[in-house]
Amino acid sequence: MASDVVVVGGGVIGAACAYALSSRGASVTLVERSELAAGASGRNHGLLFVPTEPELVEMAARTLPLVREVAEATPLRVPFDEEPLGFLVVAGDQDEVSDARAEAEGARDNGVQVEQVPGDGLREIEPALAPDLVEAWLLRDGRRLDPAALTVALATASRDRGAEVRTHLSVRALLGSDQRVVGVMTDEGPLHAGTVVLAAGPWTASLLRPLGIHLPVAGVRGWLVHLGPGPGSPRVLVERGGWHTLSGGGSFRAEAPPVPVLRAAEVARGHPGPDVGTLLQPTQDGSVLLGGSLQAALAAEPEEPSI
Fold this sequence. Notes:
The structure is a single chain. This protein is an alpha/beta fold. It is about 25% helix and about 25% strand. The protein contains 8 helices and 15 strands. Strand 14 and strand 15 (about 290-295) form a beta hairpin.
């Protein structure tokens, strides 16, 4: 029997789509090649911020009520902050001052309370920060959220609403033509649907390419370092100015560089180095999550980070 919708991908986007559609009465089949939250949705900082893009602010404002709704409806614990933890953007030189100021102004323009902090006042907020930092901006923003728990909760809540959730099942191709897609081909045969939602992350482009649709989505490999609690652990989120690139136009935003698509000739000349992340996140159990480093990748196999 055909579903109204097949959702390809069991990350947070696919699970959220399945939840929204099944909540509105659609018959939904969610297909995941591995396990729920197996990729980036299960391994990231899990932070909610007010966007710097004005057109996304209203959508983001609906996120916390949705998280609360899902958390209350599932037996799985989905920890999240009801109030912002605080987000400190620090600068060690004039280039970083400009980047940090741009981010702070972007947040202020969209309703975030922002306080400028001189270098000699930083240690009152975070005593363990380096003494050579010249300036910072403290944003009343940043809520922590367990991304894997949210993803699983969304998928299981979808199942409670009648959706079929199928894991460890690979989608190999879209069925149909460039005029109309009528389902997907899996390792167990076809799944027919009136609509197909692709939320397969870096695998999305390969599913669209046979239809003549070229989507500029490439894979990256990321690293986070989890440190145990200790003296000097941060009390708020801390980021170095310039790491969190702002996108879009306007006088205060930097243009985000595109994610590189690796080609064989480029790999032969030398694997590109990582973009080293500098975000410090105190977790709810007292440990510290550090990083957010990214590197363009051709395959999913892990390798030693060169950072």
